Amino acid sequence: MQPISPMKNFFAGGFGGVCLVFAGHPLDTIKVRLQTQPKPKPGESLLYAGTIDCLKKTLAKEGMKGLYKGMAAPLIGVTPMFAVCFFGFGMGKKMQQKTPDEILTYPQLFAAGMLSGVFTTGIMAPGERIKCLLQIQASTGEVKYAGPMDCVKQLYREFGIRGIYKGTALTLMRDVPASGMYFTSYEWLKNVLTPAGKSHNELSIPSVLFAGGMAGIFNWAVAIPADVLKSRFQTAPEGKYPNGFRDVLRELIREEGVGSLYKGFNAVMLRAFPANAACFLGFEFAMKFLNWMVPDL
User: Which pLDDT band, with edges at 50, 70 and 90, does 138 fall under?
Assistant: First the structure.
């Protein structure tokens, strides 16, 4: 059994994150547009009837590149973010081991996963804020930001560092429990799929893809209500929600019902499997490479 190495987790997690963005960003764009579309006026219909309608309209109006709007921000942020995420998980596991070969229980794995969520929030919150603003501006037709760096400059000029980190508490509320579920479900599925007498390192590529994809499904099943609130809050005009997520929650439930907390559910779930399958496959590949190149790290 390979000892836990938080540093190897760091580098392998960064590579896994890059794989995730390339595989999942188009459906993330659709998810954000569905979550933030304005409430129709009397007699008008919704801008997007659902996931497929949003996809068709985006392709018709903006082409394939429309699905990759705002990708530079998560791509720049996602490498360190996933590196820190997997580092935090490795650190959480290592902190709980009494001996290097101790097998952790599922509650211990969940606690390690939650720690990774805390680690990533500082990077995730500004990246999500920029990504969401860039994704929705194309659908509204009002182009305010020329790109990620222009978005950062304008936010900082208008609102200071607070403007860039708007939505941090909601990002934390989303990522801490979801990260616990993410890593625990992945480790559980790896255990289930590993044949008797074999090690996790011998898992086939389809098994890794399935375990990673399902971990993404479990993660988003927990995360999506907080993610809806976060997307609404981060893209709202300054001062609209003075009491933070409580105001967003009240408005959503009052105007659109509890079901509004699961807006973009289909897009999220369609994206979750391939994106996270790609992430964990990239992570496992990078870990094997690192274990071969620097076994003592």
Answer: low
pTM to 2 decimals?
0.82
CB 226 within 8 A of CB 174: yes
Side-chain-facing half-sphere of 222: CA atoms under 13 Å: 21
CB 75 within 8 A of CB 21: yes
If we measure between CA atoms, which residue out of 252, 182, 241 comes closest to residue 214?
182
Give residue 129's identity as a one-letter amino acid code. Answer: R
Give residues with Cβ within 8 angstroms of 103, minimum separation 6.
none
The three-state DSSP-derived secondary structure of 160-186 is CHHHHCCCHHHHHHHHHHHHHHHHHHH
> Which residues have CB under 8 Å from 99's CB, separation 6+?
none
Geometric angle at alpha carbon 180, from 227 and 2, rounded to 5°: 135
